[in-house]
Amino acid sequence: MNRNDAPRNPATTAPATFHVKSFGCQMNIYDGERMAEMLGTQGMTPAAEGAEADLVILNTCHIREKAVDKVYSDIGRLTRDDGSRPMIAVAGCVAQAEGSEIQRRARNVDIVVGPQAYHRLPHLIDKVGRGEAAVDTDMPAASKFGALPARTKQARPTAFLTIMEGCDKFCTYCVVPYTRGAEISRSWSAIVDEAKALVDGGAREITLLGQNVNAWTGDDDKGRAQGMDGLVRELAKIPDLRRIRYTTSHPNDMSDGLIAAHGEIDKLMPFLHLPVQAGNDRILKAMNRSHSADSYLRIIERVRQARPDIAISGDFIVGFPGETDAEFEDTLRIVEQVRYAQCYSFKYSPRPGTPAADMDHQIAAEVMDERLARLQAVLNRQQAAFNAATVGRTTQILLERKGRHPGQLIGKSPWLQSVVVTAPELEIGDFVDVDIISAGPNSLAGETVRRKAA
Length: 454
Ligand code: SAH
Ligand code: SF4
Ligand code: F3S
Fold this sequence. Notes:
Blueprint: E1 17-22, H1 26-41, E2 45-46, E3 55-60, H2 65-76, E4 87-91, H3 92-98, H4 101-105, E5 111-113, H5 121-129, E6 134-136, E7 158-162, E8 164-165, H6 176-180, E9 184-185, H7 188-200, E10 205-209, E11 217-219, E12 225-227, H8 228-235, E13 243-247, H9 256-264, E14 271-273, H10 281-286, H11 293-306, E15 311-318, H12 325-338, E16 342-347, H13 365-388, E17 394-402, E18 408-412, E19 418-422, E20 431-439, E21 443-451
Parallel strand pairs: 1-2, 1-3, 3-4, 4-5, 5-6, 7-10, 10-13, 14-15, 15-16, 19-21
Antiparallel strand pairs: 8-9, 11-12, 17-18, 17-20, 18-19, 20-21
Bound molecules: S-adenosyl-L-homocysteine, iron/sulfur cluster and FE3-S4 cluster.
Residues 24-25, 27-28, 61-63, 92-93, 175-176, 179-180, 211 line the site of FE3-S4 cluster.
């Protein structure tokens, strides 16, 4: 739509174009893609820029305070030069957590829709048109998935597929059990069908998603009880699906079968994101993590026995309430023991409604800053060492996107490292063998060995 059009009242105009902006985890990105596909089937088209669109959906994350602040500053920025604004929908975990409160804080929000209710977006858009309140944070018994259109052509060779939703773990710092609801596994057939549709649409790598993805359970097509390893085995039978990944997994749901699968299924990539959060057992208990530092280390050891070259990744929180210097040192110690390929680390952020937010001995910001810097220094060293160790190896990468310079393409190694190659003759979606010639902290440079049939 022409931005010089006369200002209009967004509440009465049916939107023709939309823009979805997703924050937070991969599950939110997946939800954002499904929203976009659904609006596409309603005849709406994507707009390149947020404020240019008739409808902007901010698909939000509630995990840390900073993530939430970002949403409100984004809402404020959606006014156009001529003073008009798009219809604004807040979706995702902030919508679930704050509901209609959002409209008190940001009056120009037209729609509030939670992560389990976004299949009803078209209905909510109509409601806005009628001048009615459009807030839907239900967690309906029937899952949204059945109401969403089937997957279509994929823009990228890598795709996300949510196989389970929610979390029953209730770590004391975390909002996810409240924003996403209880753990619910999607059915075997729904997942297999969606995977096939994604592959038919061009996907060659699928990442299975869930807040605790490895807690997935279900019956297969013969009625036998299966865990995620059985599901991965089934998906590996799809001929043109070449790579399978999963995230995020919880230590308590690392079954023997799943560990063994890492040594047995070629298509299952040698990468495991297994957050431990902290290295001290008293802190882990206060976090309600229900695993110890030792039990975590034993899992890592067994996974490495099954797949010696596996890359291990994790999440850490520094400055959980009451964490002493000595307890923080235990986090550094477990990092030294595991030797991570990459990690995410965060300062503890008190979240409204979670038990940890009310605990005594909240840690001062300067202490958290210092701990985070120390932890990240060690993690960065480990990541650089992991990357450096791949120099001189030949490995297969899947080309995912264009690089910054002409002829440059960027792909991922089996260990999820970004590899840059200059190969004008190749295309996104190609699998190619490369020699790794150099390594930086965040990416590798490779040289094409020979072109592989895709
Ligand atoms: N289900 C996953 C993680 C989902 S949230 C798991 O348990 O591993 C992603 C990460 O955000 C968490 O692993 C944790 O490290 C971090 N996180 C969650 N709540 C947080 C909080 N209140 N403050 C800081 N980091 C937090
Ligand atoms: Fe949050 Fe813990 Fe559930 Fe992960 S396992 S989503 S950190 S409550
Ligand atoms: Fe954020 Fe919700 Fe994901 S809080 S991390 S978007 S589950």
